[in-house]
Amino acid sequence: MSDSRPIALDAMGGDHAPHEIVAGAVHAVRERGLSVVLVGSPRVLYEALADHDATKEVPIVRAEEALSMDEGALASLRRPRSSIAIACHLVRRGDAAAVVSAGSTAGIVATGKLRLKGQQGVLRPAIAVAIPTLPRPTLLIDAGANAEVKSEMLVQFAHLGTAYAELLYGIDEPRVALLTIGSEAEKGNKLVKRAHELLLTSPGLRFTGNVEGHDLLSGRADVITTDGFTGNVALKTMEGAVRYAFAELRDVVSESRLARLGAAMQRSRIRELRRRLDPEAYGGAVLLGLNGTVVIAHGSSRAGGISAACKLAAELSAGGIVSRIGERVAAPHRSHRLW
Predict the structure, then answer these.
(1) What is the CATH architecture of 1-122+289-319?
(2) Residue among 84, 77, 86, 116 nearest 101 (CA)
(3) What residues in the chain have per-residue pLDDT under 50?
(4) What is the C-alpha separation between 39 and 12, in angstroms, rounded?
(5) pTM score
(6) Rounded to 5 degrees, what are φ and ψ at 214?
(7) Residue by residue, what is the 3-state secondary structure of 240-262?
(8) How far is CA 55 from CA 304, 309, 310, in A?
(9) In this predicted structure, what is the pLDDT of residue 222?
(10) Options 3.40.50.720, 3.40.50.2300, 3.30.300.30, 3.40.718.10; which CATH number does 124-281 get?
(11) Sign of the C-alpha dihedral computed for residues 132, 133, 135 and 136 taken in this order
(12) Under 8 Å between Cβ of 298 and 144
């Protein structure tokens, strides 16, 4: 399956917008062979493209406004002509295959819900994030879109994540786990206990039980379902721990000549580990459950991360992630009796 439509890239969102966003777009076009359209201020973007001699390679769609990184969900209503809103509009009318933005997560989620609407049967769109486990990434869902949920939503998040894992990682029966405070079925609050019961009897899911926070990087599951509050805290805690570990490693290997020699001998392996644990290498998070593909790149993304996000968006769109989720949610044997 292929999709010749371009990726609509919000060029004004992100800590390093628009220059790193433009550089990422140029890389995606030249090195990955993707089709990308930049959405934002034409004058600013044309100048940035000119720096790469790419004014004829990447088209621009005008957007009169932009959401700042500190703006929340209400900004989607206050700024109907923002770059992320225009990007979503391009997808909605079929002129673009997917949206990519490194802007405010709250603004992207709110704008996506408003402009693209939730898929029929989907209770709440949820954010799926790839965790760098081996031999393939584990999906954590929800990672921040829904702070308060019902047990039935955790079951549906598992279905959304399963559709993603089947498509992107080629897993026939993804293992699904529920994030809580203990591996035993009776551990957790009422929300989690009820979700555990529903997951055990939900057709189409390979539920393997509960996992705890220390299992996030263990690879014990292909999909881990949780509420957005817990998922976001867990994700950021893990990212902070990785940064701390690398900072400590850098200090240790620079303490003596022998340590520096040992680090030099292992340089390629250390570099590969850093690359594998870099959130930008995975292209970002995906907002699943909308009538369109939306990829949320890390707010601090540089050109490489933006290019990877465009690649991820193109793969999901070409693979028909929206239709796959629609089929899974609407399957007769799952109906709406659980929710």
Answers:
(1) 3-Layer(aba) Sandwich (3.40)
(2) 84
(3) 1, 332-339
(4) 8
(5) 0.89
(6) -75, -5
(7) HHHHHHHHHHHHHHCCCHHHHHH
(8) 20, 21, 19
(9) 97
(10) 3.40.718.10
(11) negative
(12) no
